[in-house]
Amino acid sequence: MRFKVIYQNNDKIKTVILNAKTPEDLKNNSNYPDNIIAIEQIKDMKNIISLKKSNSKKNIYELFKQLSIMLNSNLTISDSISLLINSEKNKETLVFLQTLDNAIKTSKDIEIALKPYSSTIGKTTIMFIKMGLENSNTKEAVNSIVTLYEQDISTKDKLKDALRYPMILFISLIISVSMIFLYVIPNFEYIFKMLGDNLPLSTKMLLWIQSAFEDYFIILILLFLSLFYGIYFFYKKYKLLFDTFIISNIPLLSELIKNYYYYRLFLSISIIVNSKYNFQLAIKHSKNVINNDYITNTIDEIINKIKNGNSIAQAFEEVKIFDELTIKLLYTAQYTANYEKVLYDISKLYKERFDQSIKNFSLIFEPFMILIIAVMVLWLILAIMVPMWSMSSVL
């Protein structure tokens, strides 16, 4: 690893770049200067990108799970990280652990030190680590990280399971249609040409599509890629508009997405509040678990209303995106001062709704895909077999 060493020499601030495995090993370097002001690790973007590729969410979860087990065994955070460093074989994960260890030992701001890894481990994870170190409750903070990862992995696995069968059907349809266009239709072209203008509409459509693919294949591919890039570009530029449309105007899918995000939001708020932080700080940091600008803007609006003197339940009620039951539960928490239990109950409610949304989505999406496949198969059979039957009647 490379480190930028900032030091003072002759009343001037100077820097030198040194190589070492860890910050402690820098002292063994002959060029290590005196009057050290600060030591900063130079981030290698290749390592950061590699960390993102080589460490899936489950692998990162396993890393924090091990750290949680060590902390629950009454080891200190420094000792736990040192044990992980000594046993870690993945180079990129090792660099991450060393960066974390160095930041803790030098009292560097964790948020700044781990910023290059925010896209890998998530801003919420960094926030929990920072709060745990600042409030000397790293055990609870790491346990919270593990809980969030467990729930996130569980919900995403359920969504993947629900989409797996429809996607297999869709891919099978694409492969089947491609094989028909490549190998079946060419064998019947001579018969189709013999019938001339007497071909049925389904066959004419089939031949037109095949001709378009043969003559304009490259152009169609370029158009498809351009369309994909255009949608991606406009999504990035007008993300709020897209997110508002997705969360509000797509039947069934909108409910699934809302329930998923609301579940993550209230679960995160519940965990932070259970760690003895105030609600305003909890909702501010929980915003990081939401990847929808429409909802995050609404959360900012809730935070501003609370700052301006509105009660928590009233602020949630005035933004008008949460249902009546959620608002009633928040008023219950407000009157009983039992936010910890009520917030957990709300997250549990949205988890149940999310699970039901997945079932509803599967119940409709799977038959819809089967119907599309049936229509495609019927069309292909009519397009190929009707001309054959016409030839048989002529003969």
Describe the structure.
With 395 residues, this protein is mainly α. The chain is 76% helix and 6% strand. It contains 16 helices and 3 strands. It has helices at residues 45-54, 57-72, 77-87, 91-105, 110-113, 118-121, 123-134, 138-195, 201-237, 239-249, 253-274, 279-286, 293-307, 312-319, 324-336, 339-394, and strands at 2-9, 12-19, 36-41. Strands 2-1-3 form a 3-stranded antiparallel beta sheet, with no helix packed on it. A hairpin with a 2-residue loop joins strand 1 and strand 2 (12-19). Helix 1 (45-54) packs across helix 4. The longest helix is centred in the middle third of the chain and has 58 residues, at 138-195. 24% of the residues are buried.
Over the alpha carbons, how many angstroms does the gyration radius reach?
29 Å
Q: What's the number of helices?
A: 16
Beta-strand segment tally? 3
The general outline is extended
Helix coverage percent: over 70%
- Spatial gap, N to C terminus: 82 Å
Low-confidence stretches: 45-50
In what order do the strands lie side by side in the largest sheet?
Answer: 2-1-3
Percent strand equals 5-15%
Largest sheet: 3 strands, antiparallel
Give the rounded overall mean pLDDT: 81
Structural class: mainly alpha
Task: List the secondary-structure elements in sequence, H or E.
Answer: EEEHHHHHHHHHHHHHHHH
